[in-house]
Amino acid sequence: xxxxxxxxxxxxxxxxxxxxxxxxxxxxxxxxxxxxxxxxxxxxxxxxxxxxxxxxxxxxxxxxxxxxxxxxxxxxxxxxxxxxxxxxxxxxxxxxxxxxxxxxxxxxxxxxxxxxxxxxxxxxxxxxxxxxxxxxxxxxxxxxxxxxxxxxxxxxxxxxxxxxxxxxxxxxxxxxxxxxxxxxxxxxxxxxxxxxxxxxxxxxxxxxxxxxxxxxxxxxxxxxxxxxxxxxxxxxxxxxxxxxxxxxxxxxxxxxxxxxxxxxxxxxxxxxxxxxx
Length: 277
What we know:
34% of the residues lie in helices and 27% in strands.
């Protein structure tokens, strides 16, 4: 992808773990690579179709100076998030914050931190079979959409499905949502679990009834296998209540393990279930 480069923007700010750094301030040097398409701007010579690097420089300066951080890591996170939130056409940013006069009692050119932050496309399965399920699901989607670093970009219709896993219980209401987020997989998982808990979710019986269920189905094209998280969801290929709403909003999306589109997987599951009738 194309990128717009900003090299060594000088900003006077007050970040540091020592009181005198916060009181007196010092010079920081910031560089940024903004990953975006410059094709349309290059073909038309129209600044409105690009990202104005002058405006980005002023944004960086504003974010570096409006708060005081103990760590340049925190200043970099805050500034990178501001760039991504301000400029939707920027898909990712590399940000370097240099501290030329780090007070370590030794001579050095600078200490620095460099981070890469990007937008991620994530698909979440959502379900409920306790309480007012439709209102719970709608409220949970609003809660996700209200997160400062996450936006709901598509929602499927809600469908009624039979319980999965052999536990006798009420029918479920299920759907899928597409997210754009700056959160890492673990951060997003923790957030989803907190939202579930806020809506009364209790993890007592596996595949049992629940007020709210939020499952991370796909995170970009990543394959994640940890004790905490498995993505793609390991059993989504067998779940109509996942594949039907997911195929509605992302039928073109290709499963990173099976290398089939979601639409293909849904059609195959329907054929398989039909043969079992």
